[in-house]
Design a protein that fits this description.
The protein contains seven helices and seven strands. With 252 residues, the protein is an alpha/beta fold. The protein has a seven-stranded parallel sheet with strand order 3-2-1-4-5-6-7, with helices on both faces.
């Protein structure tokens, strides 16, 4: 049986790392991007290889959409060399991102443009670059946020871009249906990772999050990777064009 391959952006830490590990446990090879920390990337490579799967990392700057196109070229060139004349892969997970905290009244154009570049423009054009190499019956998973459903002050620009990603995902599902490629969005709630300075790890903020979450705690990276793995499994083949919030029941 042919080994399947997933491409994950932002796979060296946090949610992306757990996605890579969860997929590797299901027998999937991993290609992922990292922004600047090559040491963390090497750790993930070693973790994936310890599970018996191949892993490779390439640098990607999500603030520059052309870097995303270059990342796809590096990944597919690697696959072509590795597999002997085949550059195709099976799963694309658009996870890379960063956050900003600014009220509408004091958000600058530069801050707006960075969030647009990182969370929308790069995702759009990197996905476009990847489509010729994505196998028919493949899967696209885009990462949104609970903040596209509920509103917390200071997160407007980030949330706007994530809302746009949810619309983009539905269009992908519609336009790629003839190739039997599914596209879905996962929307994590508040997760205790290093994202946005690691503020969700703060004890007081974690207590606040727990108080508005039905399951009574802040989320962990390990709560997300398994859902990605499920969407890449045969069992999820009829799930398409959906937004799946993974927040423990935050603000239900």
């Amino acid at each position: 049986m042919r080994t399947k391959t997933a491409i994950i952006t932002g796979g060296s830490r946090g949610l992306g790392r757990d996605m890579a590990i969860s997929l590797a446990k299901n027998g999937i090879d991993i290609i992922f991007s990292y922004h600047s920390n090559s040491t963390k990337a090497e750790e993930v490579i070693n973790d994936v290889k310890s599970l018996g799967q191949d892993a490779k990392a390439f640098q990607f700057d999500a603030n520059d959409y052309k870097s995303g196109q270059a990342f796809i070229k590096s990944a597919t060139d690697y696959l072509n060399k590795k597999n002997g004349n085949s550059s195709n892969f099976d799963f694309l997970i658009n996870n890379a991102g960063t956050g900003t905290y600014n009220m509408v009244a004091n958000t600058t154009e530069d801050q707006f443009n960075e969030m647009m570049n990182v969370h929308l423009k790069s995702v759009y054009f990197m996905t476009q670059a990847a489509l010729p190499f994505l196998n028919d019956s493949g899967r696209i998973i885009n990462i949104s946020s609970g903040l596209a459903r509920f509103s917390l002050p200071g997160m407007s620009v980030y949330a706007i871009m994530k809302g746009a990603i949810e619309v983009f995902t539905r269009y992908l599902a519609k336009e790629l249906g003839d190739r039997k490629i599914t596209a879905n969005t996962i929307a994590p709630g508040a997760i205790a990772t290093d994202f946005a300075g690691g503020s969700n790890k703060d004890e007081d903020k974690a207590k606040m999050i727990a108080s508005i979450t039905a399951l009574g705690r802040v989320g962990e990276a390990e709560d997300i990777g398994g859902v990605v793995a499920f969407l890449c499994s045969d069992d999820a083949g009829w799930v398409n064009g959906q937004r799946i919030e993974v927040s423990g029941g935050m603000l239900v």
